[in-house]
Design a protein that fits this description.
Number of strands: 11
CATH topology of the largest domain: TIM Barrel
CATH architecture of the largest domain: Alpha-Beta Barrel
Largest sheet: 8 strands, parallel, barrel
Strand order of the largest sheet: 3-4-6-7-8-9-10-11
Shape: globular
Radius of gyration: 20 Å
CATH superfamily of the largest domain: Aldolase class I
Number of domains: 2
Helix content: 40-55%
Number of helices: 14
Length: about 325
């Protein structure tokens, strides 16, 4: 897959997940097969104001390239100004969030609310494209609700405004993350526009990634929650994309060692206290599914200090064995 001259091989992307896809997570996923990574979404209004928290969300390591900054907002002027500010930080691509269903975002007219007003969506897209010296992509939903599934029309409007690629999450804004993703919408968007289309939604295994490509004709696949605690899903998806069998799933030792490395990245990026606290959700995910792991998870989330957490992790494989998830 090539987006405005940027080769993405294999065409596998890490989805933007608020509170999850920070710099350490992105580095881990890049190492294990994600070819394109997204930041957590950032507010255009916050970026224009130069908010410290917003700028921290856009901090990245060179190992993460190619990287996409995702912006959300409803005012074309603010989105254009935010795009110009974001470009000064030298991402590889900018992304317009047209998919977030969070109440706070939707109330402001941003995120999936833009699927209700394609005229406003086109204005936002033009403002971002005109202000940006980087290619612009957009991540959209099926529509606002089941009665208004308009993803192909939204995609066409975005491409006319200059957007170079699309990500399609085929749930409506009203659905949020409930129910099932309707992959037929991805196929409809793929047929409607000449630019690359990345499918997203209900890709939980490497086989799902290959099946999405076969059923929809999408040019690439985006994986989100399935990568939390299991970034090896990208290596498996890369193999299946090439027609090869997926590699054996990681053992408990594999997971524990990567969790320890991930912890080190978190502490280096965020400091001792914050790094340890924010790593707890990842440790829980790395250990999910192993017999006997629940007691270890409960113990680890009570330990303070990265050295103590790391030492306890590295002792765990010999205590729990070296099996595969149940």
């Amino acid at each position: 897959m090539t987006i405005a001259g940027l080769a993405v091989t294999p065409p596998l992307a890490l989805a933007p997940l608020a509170g999850i896809t920070d710099s350490p997570m992105r580095r881990v996923c890049r190492r294990l097969g994600a070819s394109l990574v997204w930041t957590e979404m950032v507010s255009a209004e916050g970026l224009v104001r130069g908010g410290a928290k917003t700028l921290r969300l856009l901090a990245f390591h060179p190992d993460e390239r190619p990287i996409v900054f995702q912006l959300f907002g409803a005012r074309p002027e603010a989105m254009g100004a935010a795009a110009a500010a974001a470009c000064r930080l030298k991402p590889d691509l900018l992304d317009i969030n047209v998919g977030c269903p969070a109440r706070k975002v939707v109330r402001s007219g941003a995120g999936s609310a833009l699927m209700r007003d394609l005229g406003r969506l086109a204005e936002v897209a033009r403002a971002v494209v005109e202000a940006s010296d980087r290619p612009v992509v957009a991540k959209i939903r099926s529509g606002w609700d089941e009665g208004h599934v308009n993803a192909p029309e939204a995609a066409a409007a975005l491409v006319e405004a200059g957007v170079a690629a699309l990500v399609v999450h085929p749930r409506t804004g009203r659905q949020g993350f409930t129910g099932s993703a309707d992959w037929r919408v991805i196929r409809a968007v793929r047929a409607a526009v000449p630019v690359p289309v990345i499918g997203n939604g209900d890709v939980r295994t490497p086989d799902d990634a290959a099946r999405m490509r076969d059923e929809t004709g999408c040019d690439g696949v985006m994986i989100g929650r399935a990568a939390v605690g299991n970034p090896w899903v990208f290596a498996g998806a890369a193999a299946r994309w090439s027609g090869l069998p997926a590699p054996e799933p990681p053992t408990l030792t594999d997971r524990i060692r990567l969790a320890a490395e991930h912890l080190d990245l978190m502490v280096a990026a965020k400091g001792e206290r914050t790094g340890v606290l924010e790593m707890r959700k990842h440790i829980t995910a790395y250990l999910r599914g192993f017999p006997g792991a629940s007691g270890l998870r409960a113990e680890l989330v009570r330990i303070d200090g990265s050295d103590a957490v790391r030492a306890r992790l590295l002792r765990a494989a010999s205590e729990l064995g070296d099996g595969k998830p149940a």
